[in-house]
Write a structure and sequence with these properties.
The chain is of the alpha/beta class. The protein folds into two domains: 1-47, no CATH class; 48-59 and 91-263, Glucose Oxidase, domain 1. Helices cover 19% and strands 30% of the residues. It is built from five helices and 15 strands. The chain has helices at residues 4-17, 130-135, 143-153, 182-192, 213-220, and strands spanning 23-30, 36-43, 50-53, 72-78, 81-90, 98-100, 121-128, 140-141, 161-165, 179-180, 196-199, 224-227, 240-245, 254-256, 258-263. The strands form four sheets. Strands 3-15-13-7-9-11-12-6-14 form a nine-stranded mixed sheet. A two-stranded antiparallel ribbon has the order 1-2. A two-stranded antiparallel ribbon has the order 4-5. The chain is globular, with a radius of gyration of 19 Å. It starts with a helix and ends with a strand.
Length: 264
């Protein structure tokens, strides 16, 4: 049984998200180090708002990182033989709209299956660089982009997911693409306390930047990334909440996930 101070902490941290109007039940486990984890949190009501799917549909034709095997699916059971249809899936973890866990870049980093649930529900910050990216496939999110966003919408909320909208969702097969730079990613981690960053391209970094500074800055700080987001033009730059349905296989360096936004 959790002590009252543990319950109070959980209620305060969940309430800060302002995602659910009322909570049903939460099975709480106190880890040996004293950290509080909630599995699962059951909502009695979804808040009023428009739901926007930020996830690409995964298929064998979906672009993948050069050298990766494409997604594949084949039936292994049929209605005619046994009464049920079952498919076998094959894909590399970082395929489709997916999450990058710290372990993807760093030995000993956290894996996707142990990312805290509360970090997978976050204020959504959309930084639109699509006009600049249309003329420059090597464009990056800059400090000025972030400053402009804050001039218009206020300081980036604590524990937000900051995503780049480059309007690249239909250009994923191209071998050049925008991204975050290391400096901006470090600033967001250390000065804005974000949970992670996301992009509508195949990489947090510019496609041709093989030093991977944004991956290093974000995953190295124990935060996560989300790649190949869709439909960012359908969410506002501020005010929405994002839910990242991360995979939970043991030792996951990442994996395809269902990501959606709740727009008030």
């Amino acid at each position: 049984m959790c002590g009252p101070e543990v319950v109070e902490t959980v209620h305060r941290r969940i309430g800060r998200r302002a995602l659910f109007g009322s909570l049903g039940a939460a099975a709480l486990t106190v880890a040996s180090a004293g950290a509080v984890r909630a599995e699962p949190i059951v909502a009695e009501a979804v808040p009023a708002g428009r739901l926007v799917d930020l996830t690409h549909t995964l298929s064998p034709t979906f672009p993948v990182w050069p050298g990766n095997e494409p997604f594949s699916m084949r039936p292994v059971a049929a209605y005619e033989r046994g009464g049920f249809l079952v498919n076998e899936l094959s894909y590399w973890e970082h395929t489709g709209t997916h999450i990058d866990a710290p372990a993807h870049r760093f030995r000993g980093g956290a894996t996707a299956d142990i990312i805290a649930l509360e970090d997978l529900i976050a204020p959504l910050v959309v930084v639109d660089i699509s006009a600049r990216a249309a003329a420059d496939a090597e464009a990056v999110v800059t400090i000025e982009d972030i400053a402009q966003w804050e001039r218009e919408h206020g300081r980036i909320p604590d524990r937000a997911l900051v995503v780049m909208h480059s309007h690249w969702q239909n250009r994923l097969a191209e071998r050049a693409a925008p991204g975050f730079s290391g400096g901006e990613a470090q600033m967001l981690v250390h000065e804005r306390n974000i949970v992670g960053i996301g992009v509508d391209t195949l990489s947090l970094d510019r496609m041709n930047d093989r030093e991977y500074p944004a991956h290093t800055a974000v995953l190295g700080a124990g935060r996560y990334g989300v790649e190949a987001l869709a439909n960012l033009e359908s969410v506002p730059p501020a005010g929405a909440t994002v839910v990242v349905g991360a995979p939970k296989h043991a030792g996951a360096t990442g994996g395809p996930c269902r990501v959606f936004a709740i727009v008030p």
